[in-house]
Design brief:
Largest sheet: 8 strands, mixed
Shape: elongated
Number of strands: 16
Strand content: 15-25%
Bound molecules: histidyl-adenosine monophosphate
CATH class of the largest domain: Alpha Beta
CATH superfamily of the largest domain: Bira Bifunctional Protein, Domain 2
Oligomer: single chain
Structural class: alpha+beta
CATH architecture of the largest domain: 2-Layer Sandwich
CATH topology of the largest domain: BirA Bifunctional Protein, domain 2
Number of helices: 16
Helix content: 25-40%
């Protein structure tokens, strides 16, 4: 039997209502903050991500779904959206049309990670990117939007963690300091961290290895070595978050897994989803646009994983899902009237009334069982003596009341009933 590929998941009809609630919430909050939706292709040229995210990151080094197509193009299924949004921003000169572009997206992403709860190989992100301003208020706006969406979805066990990665200059000076600190401890580090020492030293802070963690506890912190500009903007971020009544913790160990960040970075983690606990993450990336050969343009953004959020919602039992009811089931009492029932159904469907009828030649009893399963609000019985007089019984399934209605007027009667 052919099954879905490891790390991918079907989203079955019963799960869709929860997804819709998330999607509607996202749209509403982004609209309130004046973000416009952007959609980009599912695949891009591999070099976009290699250059955008960073050659030495786990995503580019180990996790991308990359392949050569039949025309020898190097293609990658997008592992994140920021690089794609920036590519579209440059390609369509969006910066020339307006000086600040506030964009949001919802899209599948692909990373070949080891699957586990909250970690998939095809997952879905929503997120936002603001391109064109260095205003630190946009950094805070990203955290506000993410937080509002998660709160709207009823999540309570949330921790906002913030950090600043400074400018590349201050970061480079700091990296030297860190390298000096680690130089005589290098041999005690895990193999992974020894590799990171050479290539991406900051990521040693991300190590889950207990020995590494012990060593890194005494390491100098980037946060204590920031340039004045980054320090000042970090102060404003903290002040504004306080004013927004968003509880947060400064986490000097938060380094994030993508290379493009400058200054503010953040993550929101849930206490209810196990080890893959980051519901969203983001930060400022003031150099990415020029790195991808666009006019120098500052940017800031975040992305959140929908599957992880749904897991948190399930574990905190937050979602009040609307019952999936249909308006009307038409029960057919006489096989010969199947065509007539089908015609009535079409007319009502064209009036925006949701209608189901029988396609399986079922007995009346079985049709009623189906009407109940579908939670039909009303059932219309077509057939019998009433039908000869142009009438049919209409049953309110909630009150069990029945009344005879004229089939000629059935649409206006139902339009009134359902207030369409
Ligand atoms: P990221 O931290 O790599 O950031 O991913 C953002 C979120 O996507 C994570 O917090 C997590 O919820 C979800 N996620 C990531 N990988 C998986 C996976 N394998 N399975 C399920 N969910 C996953 C970015 O992608 C940046 N582009 C965020 C950003 C936007 N920074 C600036 N702008």
């Amino acid at each position: 039997m052919i099954k879905a590929v490891t790390g991918t998941k079907d989203i079955l009809p019963d799960e869709i209502p929860a997804w819709k609630v998330v999607e509607k919430t996202i749209e509403r909050i982004f609209r309130n903050f004046n973000y416009k939706e952007i959609r980009t292709p599912v695949f891009e040229e591999t070099s976009l991500f290699a250059r955008g995210i960073g050659e030495e990151t786990d995503i580019v080094g180990k996790e991308m779904y990359s392949f050569t197509d039949r025309s020898e193009n190097n293609i990658t299924l997008k592992p994140e959206m920021t690089a794609s949004v920036v590519r579209a921003f440059i390609e369509h000169s969006l910066g020339k049309q307006q000086s600040l572009n506030k964009l949001y997206y919802v899209s599948p992403m692909f990373r070949q990670e080891r699957p586990q709860a909250g970690r998939l190989r095809q997952f879905h992100q929503f997120g936002a990117e603001a391109l064109g301003s260095t205003s630190v208020y946009l950094d805070v706006e990203m955290i506000q939007m993410a937080y509002e969406i998660l709160k709207e979805l009823g999540l309570k066990d949330l921790n906002v963690k913030i950090n600043s990665l400074g400018t590349p200059e201050s970061r480079n000076l700091y990296k030297e300091k860190l390298r000096k600190f680690l130089s005589d401890k290098k041999d005690k580090l895990s193999e992974d961290s020894r590799k990171r020492f050479e290539k991406n030293i900051l990521r040693i802070f991300d190590s889950k290895d207990e020995k590494d963690k012990k060593i890194m506890k005494d390491a100098p912190l980037l946060l204590d070595n920031l340039d004045n500009e980054s320090k000042d903007s970090f102060e404003i971020v903290k002040e504004t978050l306080k004013l927004s009544e968003i509880p947060f913790k400064v986490d000097p160990y938060l380094v994030r897994g993508l290379d493009y960040y400058t200054k503010t970075t953040f993550e929101i983690v849930s206490g209810k989803v196990g080890s893959q606990n980051a519901l969203c993450g983001g930060g400022r990336y003031d150099l990415l646009v020029e790195q991808l050969e666009g006019e120098p343009t500052p940017g800031v953004g975040f992305a959140a994983g929908i599957e992880r959020i749904l897991l948190a919602c399930e574990n905190e039992k937050t979602l009040n899902l609307p019952e999936n009811k249909i308006d009307l089931f038409i029960a057919c009492l006489n096989d010969e009237l199947a065509g007539k029932v089908f015609e009535i159904a079409l007319n009502l469907r064209r009036k925006n009334i949701s209608v189901e009828c029988d396609y399986l030649n079922r007995s009346l009893k079985a049709q009623m069982r189906e009407a109940n399963r579908l939670k039909a609000k009303y059932v219309l019985f077509v057939g019998g003596d009433e039908y000869k007089n142009g009438l049919a019984n209409l049953k309110n399934m909630e009150t069990s009341e029945q009344r005879l209605v004229s089939l000629n007027k059935i649409d206006s009667i139902l339009l009134e009933v359902f207030n369409v």
